[in-house]
Amino acid sequence: MATNPCPIKIDCDCTDFPITNYSSEGAEQVPNFYALVFPRSWDAFGCLSLCESEVSQDAADLCALAQEASCETTKRSLEYCNTAQSCSCTSVNGSEFFYTTPAGTFCAETQEACDALAYSYACEHCGDSSTSTVLGEIDTTSCYGEAYYSKIPASGVTPSLWTIYQGSLPTGLSLQPATGIISGTTTSAGTFSFTIRAYNSDGNFAVRTYTIYVAQIITAALTDATTGTPYSLQLQAAGGSGTYVWSIYAGSLPAGLTLSSTGLISGTPTAAGDFSITVKVQTEEA
User: Fold this and answer.
1) pLDDT single digits (tens) 176-193
2) What CATH architecture applies to the domain 138-216?
3) Has residue 89 got a pLDDT over 60?
């Protein structure tokens, strides 16, 4: 009977997987997971691989498979290496992350085997906070002609490059590729949706779609009022999302007139004169 051509592997470098603090005693004891991969036959080249992990059974299995695949590569017929394999995962806030195992990371005797190893490796890393990036919320409202500034929050691995993958920013705004800051002065009203891709230094990237609503007051001037005569005028706005809420930002209306939160100026003026006001509109979601 032939002997196993490879020595038994006892340890595996599992530094790619987070290892928690371990205590062999007490209530805080962490269970161990083991994976054992036997050679296909004692007469064929192959390794008896044993891996131990404190994280999960999947981590131990992947470690043992990767170890077995890399053992005695000079004696085995490893003619195939993996193509790039990607996995995606979605966070609770809707942000997606894509992790890719580069081509050639794993080699095996079949294309399917090495691609399967690469795919499993990518999926193991996809949800790992030490390798992933999660994109947060930004300010979704703006007013026409006003300055806008919002930095896209990123937790986990800090991105090194920010790009707009689909859609477009509101006219007048731009994205800083190195920082993820969106800034500028809006020059048109409307609804603007766009998708951000944020890459880390390894080429893996997070994706999230955002919408910015730009509101604009389209009532350019008020009609004249007459003392002692009832007056009514509805202010108009465009763009934005939700319900318009109006208020006086500066100045004052003639005595007897009021501005409601719905944008209606009404009442009976009781004093003559010239009055100048600046109104402000905001949007509120229902």
Assistant:
1) 999 999 999 999 888 899
2) Sandwich (2.60)
3) yes
C-alpha of 96 from chain center: 5
Termini Cα distance of the chain: 78
Handedness of CA 54, 56, 61, 66 (dihedral sign): negative
What distance lies between CA 220 and its chain's CA centroid? 40
Q: HEC profile for the chain?
A: CCCCCCCCECCCCCCCCCCCCCCCCCCCCCCCEEEEECCCCCCCCCCCEEEEECCCHHHHHHHHHHHHHHCCCCCCCCCEECCCEEEEEECCCCCEEEEEECCCCCEECCHHHHHHHHHHHHHHHHCCCCCCEEECCCCCEEECCCEEEEECCEEECCCCEEEEEEECCCCCEEECCCCCEEEEECCCCEEEEEEEEEECCCCCEEEEEEEEEEEEECCCCCCCCCCCCCEEEECCEEECCCEEEEEEEEECCCCCEEECCCCEEEECCCCCCCCCEEEEEEEECC
pLDDT tens readout for residues 111-153: 899 899 999 999 988 878 888 999 999 988 888 888 999 999 9
- Assessment of whether the complete model's pTM goes beyond 0.85: no
User: How far is residue 148 from each of residues 44, 168, 218, measured CA to CA in Å?
Assistant: 67, 15, 20
Cross-strand bridge partners of residue 261: none
Domain spans of the chain? 1-76, 79-128, 138-216, 218-284
244 - beta bridge partners?
283
